[in-house]
Amino acid sequence: MKIGAITIGQAPRVDVTADILRIFDDSLELIQAGGLDGLTKEEIAEFAPGKDDYVLVSRLTDGTSVTFAERYILPRLQDAINRMEDEGCSLIMMLCTGTFPETLSTKSIPMIYPCELLNRLVPLMTKKSSMICMTPSPLQTEQCEEKWRNYVDHVTAVAASPYGDWEELEKAAEKIKDYDADLIVLDCIGYTQKMKKMFAEKTGKKVVLPRTLLARVVSELTDI
Fold first, then answer.
1. CA angle, corner 83, sides to 72 and 96, nearest 5?
2. Which terminus of the chain, N or C, has fewer Cβ atoms within 10 Å?
3. Is the Cβ–Cβ distance between 101 and 107 less than 8 Å?
């Protein structure tokens, strides 16, 4: 069975598949594509977000990260969706926790977005209705808090990139360990199992990792 995986950055996302492929059955074939595939860094720089843009952060195949506005890649994401469906994928998963417009669509197969899974799961996991949202960029903290206020009473967004220095992540964990919240959401597909473990150990709080949550749901849907 073929399943598709679309990243907003560049494919393949070897950093993500390192954590999720072990969850899938060996019979699954993963087809990957990205919204920034084939573009140079100079071309991507032209996608820089403006004041009112929805901001995205993702990884390039050289391991570096980039920040850009969602609107520039939507047609490219739709092209990737169309190609995967034409190639016979039975399901497509989005390797991004961001929110996407309903204009992105498939013809006849399921499209699984991590944000939709998180939106439903997170309110069930926090007894205090209070959470900490880890996000890659300071440009994303406001949009992150605005989004999560639709689902919990209190949210604090803290920026620390999964694509940056490990020390930055450890400092963020120390910063938030005494915050009055019982749940941390690592709100980017770039955060890893190793990062989840570190945040849990340093803070003593429950931690949600989107990449493995997504993979487990998709595995359940493709378990034949």
1. 50
2. C
3. no
State whether residue 207 is helix, strand or coil: strand
Sheet holding 206-208, edge to edge: 154-159, 130-135, 183-186, 206-208
Q: What DSSP state is assigned to residue 133?
A: E
Cβ–Cβ under 8 Å, residues 140 and 159 = yes
Q: Across the 224 residues of the chain, what is the mean pLDDT of every consecutive 10-residue run?
A: 97 96 90 97 97 97 97 97 97 97 93 97 95 98 97 98 98 97 98 98 98 96 78
pTM over 0.85: yes
In terms of Cα–Cα distance, which of 54, 77, 73 is closest to 146?
A: 54
In total, the chain counts a number of residues equal to: 224
Cα gap 5→33, rounded to integer Å: 7
- For residue 24, the tally of other CB atoms under 10 A from its CB is 19
Tell me the two tokens of residue 68. 């850009």
